[in-house]
Amino acid sequence: MFNFSIKIGGPAGEGIFSTGVLISKYFQKANLNVVYTMDYPSLIKGGHNTCTIRCSKKKIFSEELFQDIIVAFDKLSIEEEFKYLKKGGILICDENNNFTEKNINIIEVPFLKLLGKENYKFKNSFIFGILVGILGKNEPILRKVIKIYFKSKPEEIIQKNIKIALLGLNFWIQNYNKLFLIETLIEDKNNKLLINGNDAASLAAIKAGVKFIAEYPMTPSSSFLSFMAKRKDDFHIITKHVEDEIAAINMVIGASFTGVRSMTATSGGGFALMGEAIAFAGISETPCVIFECQRTGPSTGIPTYTEQSDLKFVLNAGSGEFPLIVLAPGDVEECFYETFDAFNIADLIQTPVVILLDKHIADTKITIEEFNEKNLYVLQRNVQNLNLTNYKRYKFTDTGISPRTLPGEDGVYVSSSYEHDETGWTDESGKNHKLMQEKRFKKLNLIDKKKLIPKLYGPTNADLTLIGWGSTKTSAIDAINILNQIGYCVNYLHFIFINPMDSLKVKKILNNCKDTMILECNYTGQFRDILREKTLFDIKKTFFKYDGRPFFYKEIIDKVKEVLKNE
Amino acid sequence: MNNKKNIFITDLNQPNHIIQWCPGCGDFGILFAIKRAIIQLNLDPKNVVIVSGIGCSSKLPHYIKTYGVESLHGRALPVATGIKYSNKKLHVIVVGGDGDGYGIGLGHFIHTIRRDIDVTYIVHNNETYGLTKGQASPTTKKGIKTSSTPFGVIDNPINPISLALTSGCNFVARGYSNNMIDLSNLIIKGIKHRGFSFIDVIQLCPSYNKIQTDLYYKDKFININCLKNYDNSNRLLAINKAMEKNSEKINIGIFYEDNSYLPFEENFNLIDENIKNININNLIDDFK
Predict the structure, then answer these.
(1) What does A469-528 look like in DSSP terms, one character per residue?
(2) 8 Å CB contact between A531 and A311
């Protein structure tokens, strides 16, 4: 069962990520499992950018820290990355770098000589060909993958890229044929998808019937708008790039008020501008879904790197108290299914829902099975208990949910950001406010209770339970799989729904753990605090990572070993 | 727009909602003018949405029996935009004060004009922040003493008419809250105009603007549409008119009107789309 990883590094604008995606799709065609990650600074040209492509026959979820092959487009990449190359690994770089290092194979490739000045810009395809030479030499897949990747370009460009890639492949076969990681690779037809979190969530949103998206693009959330804008005519969606995040969220509320499923997406700084409107959605009981893709903070922070440090901020968004649902999908599949459900939940509970992602889950592509759409139903508005003779939009009911009319139908009312009585008319009395607060919070009881408890991965009676939320999941699962193979007994408790949470059940689950350790990518241990607040359970062992990078499963393994050794 | 049933004022009144405006407030005139416009155009109230921000004038949606949204200070235009995009069959009217629209909401004002969305925006311009008790607003004249400017306003006031014109608005008008019939006719024209229509209404505030009373305004208004040589299809002329410096005369009427543009609208209506069984197979193929 092989498992290896490639890292490609170089300046922005030279096609590093193209090469990365090409080789990822090459593996996808052979029905291998792939994890593709991107690491890039906030620049258009230059800087040091890398991508990693991990490939395995077994199911994998996260990236490798150490590489079997490193391709360095420039000298900086050699300097920065060689320390991540395993003993016996292959370093591919340009000639005349005068780089020497023991125990690795340094292959200097005279790119300029081989390609000439006019074809130098196709270097990324040439390198793809070289990688194919090291990894199975399958020419038909090489051609197929280039055709797919460049399908929007003119035919001559596609053919040019194929030609250059084959040059790379032949270069490797002629000079380094005995140096390979995979001898032969065969195509294996499959229906797997290679997809990242943002795109999976976007697909789910379209499937869920979103027809309006207003966004102010902010890394790493920008792909929502561009993904949907491309498909707007096929799916009859109105997509607007608006003047600021305040316009975005208020347009979304207007659209939802009118009965159209709508959404916006942003990062921490943009979300900060949306606070007032989120509280407006809460008090006016207007459904809406907001994606918050966390970046390294605080403030503008590090736009293209990751963190899990907006959790408490998001939970407390907006002034005052109102039901705000917050969930954090942990992998690409959860991005799809939980997003689909989120739109139903927002409509059912008539309240804002925040889906908390981060740069790591937004950008990382992984191979997954096709989505199972069989049990996906779009919730229809309940018009049964609509009493139009004495219509009250905010009628007190057993569940707290009041049936709503939409503009264009009988049953006019005014939706207001002020506290209001059952009809929507401003009411400042103490008696009414008390009842309205109770009504609004009661609505949360309708959420499927199964969603409000964490999922356990791994053996049930573990010596140590790792606890995490959001994108920690992928590295944690890879870590416990390996730890359990080498004689440890560790499991992972994964939280998706942060608010609401079934505190009583969660408290029982935590108390039943032999030992616990929390993993999260922030400095202050936000989720550790939230669990303590909700369950009085104090997680003493902590692993906080706050360098703008996600957990590597290897780091988790090392930490667990260290922690259990000291017991 | 034409409805089978005739709409009467009784269809629009909200007798249970006691109007909170001060006696003599110009908002009463604007409320009447809007109601009369809806009746003259025979709009079905369930197809009308009145969106407001926060302030005295923003209570207006509660006083008409149509759909309404009392949103946030300065944010009525984005909310109205979301509504109109979602169901283009609705008639959307936006109301709010000068503090709301020309202060905190100024950015949205210009971008909504750019979008040329088919809504009618009526600003209750009383040159003060009424609800918070009389502070200087973006249109308060220089030198005026208010609770926030006890020694007189030192900033220059906004000129909303010229701002709308230079931003590209295709229907720019000004009315007076006490000239209710004329104002109502402006509103009717604004609603009929396809695209964004903007009406700045000089509004009396007897509580906090005690200088600019009905007596102050007597004989000051010039209806530019009655002038022989005023062509309101000439934008540059309109800008000129809007920026005329004259403390004794105030221009009102339609400064500029261009009905030749049809604002871009999709050929589908979002609210009518069937979302029960959307097929995303083609999208998924992109990832295979």
Answers:
(1) ETTHHHHHHHHHHHHHHTT--EEEEEE-EEES--HHHHHHHHHT-S-EEEEESSSS-HHH
(2) no
Contact B83 A206 (CB under 8 A): no
Q: How confident is the model at residue A97 (pLDDT cuts 50, 70, 90)?
A: confident
Question: Among A254, A323, A339, which Cα is nearest to A290's?
Answer: A339
Tokens representing A108? 């200097």
Nearest to B94 by CA among B110, B75, B107: B75
Do B205 and B26 touch, CB atoms closer than 8 A? yes
pLDDT, tens only, B120-135:
999 999 999 999 989 9
Q: In whole angstroms, how large is the CA radius of gyration of chain B?
A: 20
List pLDDT tens digits, range A548-563: 999 999 999 999 999 9
Q: Which residues pair with B91 in a beta bridge?
A: B48
Secondary structure E strands in A32-97: 33-39, 46-56, 67-72, 85-94
Q: What is the DSSP letter of A84?
A: G
* Residue A352, SS3 per DSSP: strand
Residues in A closer than 8 angstroms to B81, CB to CB, are: 247, 251, 254
**Beta-bridge partners for A262:** A212
| Angle, vertex CA B97, rays to CA B160 and CA A278, nearest 5 | 110
Interface membership of A276 toward B (CB under 8 Å): yes
> Can you spell out the DSSP letters for B184-225?
HHHHHHHHHSSS-EEEEEE---TTT--SS-HHHHTTTEEEGG
Whose tokens are 């009144």? That residue is: B13
Of B69, B89, B96, nearest in space to B270 by CA: B89
Q: Which of the 8 DSSP states describes residue A460?
A: S
Tokens of A312: 């408490």
Using DSSP bridges, classify how beta strands B221-223 and B171-176 pair: parallel, antiparallel or unpaired: unpaired
Residue B119's nearest CA partner among B201, B71, B168, B51 is B51
φ, ψ for residue A48 (rounded to 5)?
-115, 115
Please spell the DSSP secondary structure of A172-198, one letter per residue: HHHHHTT--SBS---------EEEEHH
Contacts of B266 in chain A (CB under 8 A): 236, 238
> CA–CA separation, B106 vs B286, rounded Å?
42
When CB atoms are compared, the residue of A193, A280, A413 closest to B284 is A193
Question: What one-letter code names the amino acid at A281?
Answer: A
Q: Which two tokens stand for residue B280?
A: 């995303």
State both tokens at A256.
């939802």
Cβ contact, residue pair A244, B107, below 8 Å: yes
Q: Which two tokens stand for residue A185?
A: 């690779």
Residues of chain B in contact with residue A247, where contact means CB-CB under 8 angstroms, are 75, 78, 81, 107-108, 111
State the Cα–Cα distance between residues A82 and A90, nearest whole angstrom. Answer: 10
**Which H or E run contains A541?**
strand A541-544
Helices and strands, number each (H, E), in chain A:
20, 21
Convert the pLDDT of each residue in A156-186 to its tens digit. Answer: 999 999 999 999 999 999 999 999 999 999 9
A269 exposed, middle or buried (CB, 10 Å; 0-12, 13-18, 19+)?
middle
Which helix (H) or strand (E) element contains residue B120? strand B120-125
- CA dihedral over A522, A527, A533, A535, signed as positive or negative: negative
User: What DSSP designation does A454 have?
Assistant: P
Residue B196 CA neighbour count, 13 Å, CB half: 23
Closest CA relative to residue A223, chosen from A27, A347, A38: A38
Place of tokens 């995009």: B85
DSSP code for A113: H
Residue with tokens 């992109």: B286
ipTM score of the complex? 0.97
Amino acid symbol at B69: V
User: What is the number of other CB atoms lying within 10 angstroms of the CB of residue A314?
Assistant: 23
* pTM score of the predicted model: 0.97
Q: Are A60 and A33 in contact (CB under 8 A)?
A: yes
Helix (H, G, I), strand (E, B) or coil at B260: coil
**Start-to-end CA span in chain B (Å):** 48
